[in-house]
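Appendix B, Record 12. Input sequence as logged:
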Amino acid sequence: MIKSILIFCALFALWCQLCASYKVKAPPVECDTCKVIMRDILHLVGTNTTTEHIEEVLEDVCSNLNRLLSPACEHILHEYELEIVKEIQTHPNNATAICFDFKLC
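Logged structural output:
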């Protein structure tokens, strides 16, 4: 359950950041949460960084959340999946770089 909440928080923070597009450095909590979640997602993605596989992993993450969090996660993916996939393909082994690119660190 805690992992589900962390995944949701990271995706929600990412969504907020993409929506706001502000250039203020994010608080350390958002950065740390993003890195933890992105490490988990990168681990699930593994070496297969095809768009289809990454999308599958992201959708599985959302579908494994509880009924309250899953719709919000799916909405975030619907809006920003391409950006998330591109970042994972650009930095397949570097959660920190992904979080910096999303200005969460």
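The chain has five helices and no strands.
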